[in-house]
Amino acid sequence: MGALSGMVSIVLVVALAVLAFSVLAGRLAGTPVTMPMLFTTAGLLLGPTVLDVVRLDVEDEVVSVLAEATLVLVLFTDASRLDLRTVVREHSLALRLLLIGLPAAVLIGTGVGWLLLPSMPLIALALLAATLAPTDAALGQSFVESPSVPQRIRQTLNVESGLNDGLVVPFVVILIDVALAQTDTAAGYVVLLAQIVGLGVLVGGLTGWLGGRLLGWAHERSWTTAPSLRLGVVAVAGCSYAAAELMGGNGFVSAFVAGAVLGATPRPVLEHTTTFAQSEGQLLTLLTFLLFGGAIASDLVADLDPGHLIYALASLLVVRMLATTVALLGSGVSAPTVLYVGWAGPRGLASIVYAVLVVTTAGLPMSEEIFVIAGWTILLSVYLHGLSAAWISRRYGDRVSQAPKDRPEHRSISLLPLRLQRAEHRSR
Asked: What is the per-residue pLDDT across 37-62, written as a single tens digit (0 to 9) for each?
């Protein structure tokens, strides 16, 4: 009876959260209070530390399944909405952040951890840094939607957050393998990387191509309806993840590649991936923050370690800033732009998923410490980035608007391929 009562409480909390999302989404737009902040706070209040309405352990399947499923769908829909040819041709700043800044964040985060957390092994510090390397699109929404920020910078942040959570997967998986000492030769790691990435790309590409063609074929013959087509798109994402995991590949890589391939399918199918990302996908992300507040953040608040808090602040204020500076050297952008982009890198959904993956991996050294420090970083990011985004964006916009119009920040770019611009317009 107790277990049933607990499950009913969770259902009630989720239902109330959905209702709050429906009522407040438009009202909170443009204010310092973000939806992730609201849902995380609700989780904190409802968790065992305060009201004790919802009791969830971080290793509970409800938490891990929801977090992983949400990341799969976010990776899939983000990839489907980005034309990679446009990214390579137009978004040089985003490519710098992805190809230089992401590895730099892992290296710098490891170095900062070596200075601040000397009791932790180097491999554990590297895994912690990789867990915190990706940025979050949901928390960064206030940055990428601010009209005072130049279009190119907003798109740079949008592209970066849409791609880096998938690109960091090999780092996390390889580092977990190193920590567990499961592979002991360089050739073994090459094989492991090929398995993770190769099978993920192969299965994701095939699933995305077949699923997109099947849905497009059915739509042309009026066999589908709008709701069923949306469900079909979600099913393609699930198939790509599950098939890759069953074959020994990485499901997150597979979901990302499947989304990118499905993005080349006929426009009616693409419209439904965009519609999903703006509705159900956003809601799933917010529910993950709700469970983060209830199942993870409550424990962090109850057991505070100053060393963990110092590293969390350093990750937000130092690691990301230094990595961004390294990535943007020689790009021609101004110092205010480097600082703004460096701050506009909140940690969220991907870091939650990777932290849960770390703590639930049996036999992984220092997994609890990695999880706690990552949790503190995410918790601080939810509030610090949420409260500061609108104000900092306005200040930066005022500053950069006074710069000459030939500066790289003001260069015009192609936002999206034509088919996607139309799809997004029609979905509003």
From this structure: 888 888 888 777 777 776 666 666 77
